Predict the 3D structure of the following.
Amino acid sequence: MNTLNILLIEDETADQLLEKILITKGYSVKRTVTSEADIQSLMTNNKTDLVIFNIDSPKKYFQLIHNQAWPIIIFAADDTPDIIDQIVKAGVGAYVVNGLEPNRITSIINIAMARFKEQQRLKSELEKTKSKLEERKLIDRAKGILIKTRDFSEDDAYHTLRKLAMDRNIAIGEMAKNVIAMAELLK
C-alpha cells in the first residue's frame, strides 16, 4: 500500500480512468474534484502529499500551481512551448502530455516526489545563502561604522563586533544590527 494522500483534480470532461489506476496501484485518492471546486482549500485542508491534475490545459491553474508546498503532476493535452515554459518555471514535478499509461504512473509519481524534495532543498539552501549574505552586509556596514567613529582597523572592528556579540550571547549579525541602529540613533 502506498502511503501518499493524493488530491486528484480533473476537468469535467475527464473520465475516471486516472482515479481507478491510482487506486489499483494502492494510492489513497483523498478527493477527486472537478475544476469548479475550491481547489486551494482542498489542498490545504486534506493533508495532501501530492496533487495530480488531469486537465486539458493548465492555463487557468497557473496562479494556483506556482510555488505550491506540494509536489504537482499534470496530465494534459496542451504541449505549446509557452505552456511548457510556464510549467517548468512554476516548479511542477512532472508534466505529461497525452501520456496516461497505467504502467508508468508509479515512476511518474516517484520522479515528481524526488524532484519536489530536491527543489525544496535548493530553496532552503538559497534562503540560507541569502540570509548569510545579508548578515555579511550588516557586519561590513557595522565594521565601517566602527572604523569611521573609533578609528579602528578592519580587523579590530571585526574582533570588537565578535567580542561584543559573544559577551551578550548573540549572533554577530544581530550585534551588527545593534551597532548600526545605535549609530543611526546618534546621528
The mean pLDDT is 87.
